[in-house]
Amino acid sequence: MQTEYIKLDPEHMDKAALKKGALLLRQGEVVAFPTETVYGLGANALDPAGVDKIFLAKGRPGDNPLIVHVAHPDQLKPLVTEISSGAYALMERFWPGPLTLIFPKSTLVPSNVTGGLNTVALRMPGHPVALALLQEAGVPVAAPSANLSGKPSPTVGEHVWTDLMGKIPLILDGGETQYGVESTVLDLTTTPPMILRPGGVTLEEIQEVIGEVRQDPALKANQPPRSPGMKYTHYAPEAEVLIMEGSEQEITSLIVNHYQRLVKTGQKIALLVSEETARELEHQLVPDYLEILGPRKNLSLVAHRLFSALRHADFHGVDLILIEAFSDQGLGAAVMNRMRKAAGNKVLKS
């Protein structure tokens, strides 16, 4: 299959490109497009044959649910059987934006969208290209991240091209994504509501709107999560990933000591660390690849850079990635969740 690659300026969008993408979606094809979180690979959510093409292109297991994207909250009504007052309050506060809400599904939603579950995950993305494409298509669009299954999620169009060239008909490149990690997934079918996947909207922000919210115990207990996009191994580069966890005072020594042991084995090693740790390491070692994720307290920047940094390390052909752990508070919950998934929960503590 030939893949067409079109760059779009979000402020002055090419209407012909949007019409082309929308037509492909209505015809049962898949299209990659930017959201404010990561790039998505979309198909008409009401077309089971089109949805099957998402799983085929990504190599994604068919029992792994998808998130349905809408252009307006009113599009929810035919897709769900119940919308609570809390759901309306959350949509009012966070949509468009990086919050996915889980509802009881209607019979209109195909079972391959929901992985056979009786619930459906929905969100309204905040990226202007995504919204314009959804509005032009006029259909709800099921879309996981636009990468090969298990690989780091794409935050620029080139990542999608690397993974899916020749597998899909169209990539719409709207530039670098804002958040760099996927949306928060909140299950509204439980009491109290439960976060199944941390993301761009924090636990604390949600609690400000609806009160008590729990987190899925599987997020910290190394059990299979129930969220779309979290059931299987995810976010993993080709290189092995090891998380380096310690206090601010201990982390540099931990990295130096472990690095010095590993380098003797002949492995090529990458370091993905905070700005502060990079300064302390400057005169102590020279890794095969170094990327600074950002200051320890700027977790939005760390989240923004994480997936790209994992891909960059692979590009440099390293065997092992040593990555510094960050605070798991606020947006750090999403950062550390993705980091643990990429590392297969392999952590070295001081």
From TrEMBL:
It comes from the Bacteria. GO terms for molecular function: L-threonylcarbamoyladenylate synthase. PROSITE patterns: YRDC. It holds the Pfam family Sua5_yciO_yrdC. Its main location: cytoplasm. Residues 15-201 form the YrdC-like domain. Keywords: ATP-binding, Cytoplasm, Nucleotide-binding, Nucleotidyltransferase, Transferase, tRNA processing. It is found in: Cytoplasm. It catalyses: L-threonine + hydrogencarbonate + ATP = L-threonylcarbamoyladenylate + diphosphate + H2O. InterPro entries: DHBP_synth_RibB-like_a/b_dom (IPR017945), Sua5-like_dom (IPR006070), Sua5/YwlC_C (IPR038385), Sua5_C (IPR005145), T(6)A37_SUA5 (IPR010923), TC-AMP_synthase_SUA5 (IPR050156). Its EC number is 2.7.7.87. Belongs to the SUA5 family. Required for the formation of a threonylcarbamoyl group on adenosine at position 37 (t(6)A37) in tRNAs that read codons beginning with adenine. This is Threonylcarbamoyl-AMP synthase. It comes from Dehalobacterium formicoaceticum.
